[in-house]
Amino acid sequence: MAEALPVCASEALQERGLAVQWELLYCGLEERAFAVRVDGQVVAYLNRCGHVPTELDWQPNAFWDDSRQYLICAVHGALYSPRTGACLGGRCGRMGLIPVAVSERDGQVHWYPSDTLQPLPDAPASSP
Ligand code: FES
User: Fold this and answer.
1) CB 3.0-4.6 Å disulfide test: which of 6, 14, 40, 78 passes with 92?
2) What is the full DSSP assignment across 20-86?
3) Is the Cβ–Cβ distance between 92 and 78 less than 8 Å?
4) Any idea which architecture 5-62+98-118 has in CATH?
5) Where does the Rieske domain start and stop, copy by copy (predicted)?
6) Which residue has a Cα nearest atom 4 of ligand 1?
7) pLDDT band at 128, cuts 50/70/90?
8) Rounded Cα gap, residues 114 and 23, in angstroms
9) How confident is the model at residue 93 (pLDDT cuts 50, 70, 90)?
10) Residue whose CB lies within 8 A of the most ligand 1 atoms, among 92, 94, 95, 97, for a mutation test
11) 90 lines ligand 1 (CB under 6 A)
């Protein structure tokens, strides 16, 4: 697995609470990813709707619908599974969210680059 890069302290992610975002490169373009906690687990996705490639959150870091069961795009209301990123309704069609690999250990959340997701050139150093 690729090197682990820091996202935030575990305590920054409350169950179905506000997200933590960070910048990265997606296919060479500067974009943002977000991490949330659902059922105790941290999950992360690229902040890019499957309908139109725009960010989902209108209010910064607010990705949950009113029921706090689904992730929602504030632009046209597409709903996504927080566990898988799959589109569950709305204009996202069959396009789900793009997952970002994350882990949580010793009170810290980290993400892992991939072929398409890379750190910014000036990103914080990796963890041991
Ligand atoms: S841009 Fe997200 S539902 Fe249209």
Assistant:
1) 78
2) EEEEEEETTEEEEEEEEEETTEEEEEES--SSSSS-S-SSTT--B-TTSSSEE-TTT--EE-TTT--
3) yes
4) Single Sheet (2.20)
5) 5-111
6) 76
7) low
8) 14
9) confident
10) 92
11) yes
Amino acid identity for residue 59 in this structure: Q
For residue 119, the SS3 value is coil
Which residue's CA is the closest to the ligand 1 atom numbered 3?
A: 76
Q: Is the CB of 49 under 6 A from ligand 1?
A: yes
CA distance 71 to 60: 14
If one compares 1 and 25, the residue with the highest pLDDT of the two is: 25
CB 50 near ligand 1, within 6 Å: no
**pLDDT tens profile 10-59:** 999 999 999 999 999 999 999 999 999 999 999 999 999 999 999 999 99
Tell which atom from ligand 1 comes closest to the C-alpha of 56.
2
Domain residue spans in the chain?
5-62+98-118
CA 89, 98, 37, 18 torsion-angle sign:
negative
Q: Which residue do the tokens 């041991």 mark? A: 128
